[in-house]
Amino acid sequence: MTPHGQLAIRRPADLPLDSLVRLVRSYEENITGVATCTREDVLLETSRPACAENSWCLTGPGDEVLAWAAMTPCGDVLDAALTSLPGRHGESAARTLLCLMLDRADELSVERGKPYAVTVGGVLHGDSVIPSVLKEAGFVRSAALGRYDIDLTVPLLPPLLPDGGVVRQAGAEDEGTLHALHLRSLSKGPKAEDPASFRAGLRRLRDSGGVTLLLEVSGRPVGYALARTAAGEGRVLDLGVAPAFRGLGIGLALLTAVLAELRGLGATRALVTLDSGDLDDHEALGHVLRIQGARVVTRFRRAGTD
Fold first, then answer.
1. How many CB atoms are closer than 10 A to CB 227?
2. Looking at the domain assignment, is residue 302 inside a domain?
3. pTM attached to this predicted model
4. In a domain, 19, yes or no
5. Which of 291, 271, 198, 289 lies closest to 230, judged by CA?
6. pLDDT digits over 44-57, tens only?
7. How does pLDDT run across 227-239, given as a tens digit for each residue?
8. Cβ atoms 291, 137 nearer than 8 A
9. 73 pLDDT exceeds 60?
10. Same domain, 268 and 209
11. pLDDT-based confidence at 246, cuts 50/70/90?
12. What CATH code is carried by the domain that includes residue 216?
């Protein structure tokens, strides 16, 4: 499929991984002046089971990737990412891939006999392309999140746990408990409702040397954190707290504990994305962690699909 000229729609699997990495890093640098995306981040995204049928790239001459869209089913939500560089083809590239995503969303709704809500996350504050294209297509802002770049070269303070609180490594026997906490947490991202898919993701994370922590208070599971590291870069992938235990410092205790684990694995920095359900007060981060940078990312949802 060639929209015009030398532009073409391609599947990510048919392109060099590094071309996708260059796109995302260029997107970040153009908007914030700093790129945090790594090859491992893109590899994780492209290795998702749904990626083959629900991901597209728009390329120019020499297979240069100008835009990339990917969509993952999460229960009744299709959670998407849309990245497009500003410039001559920026808006038209974003519109082209968004149309493909929405057409695919309609196909999945027919195939599975149920309507899907559609969200697009990870849009950086200052992006001059994606928000306007999403607004044209009937999307509205859903949630703003903070993304923090944390320096792990300095020792971390030990987690401040509530009375009776213990943080431990979660094993295979805890997969059901982690999934229940995941579904109950008030984080604004889509939920992985299918237990089998959630457990498969946990196993892949453990097999790759990732971190899975469970926080219990008097033996009762109240929070969890998932993270991984590669080439000195850490990522906190998920962090959730049971609603009844919010406001007790559980989120901050989990965050400091999982960052300490990443530091122990050799990470010198870590990236973590938090919404208002993760920590009671984001300003508390600056008192216990050395933050090298912070940025705002926005999630959009298609109006009328809740």
1. 25
2. no
3. 0.85
4. yes
5. 271
6. 888 877 777 899 99
7. 999 889 999 999 9
8. no
9. yes
10. yes
11. confident
12. 3.40.630.30
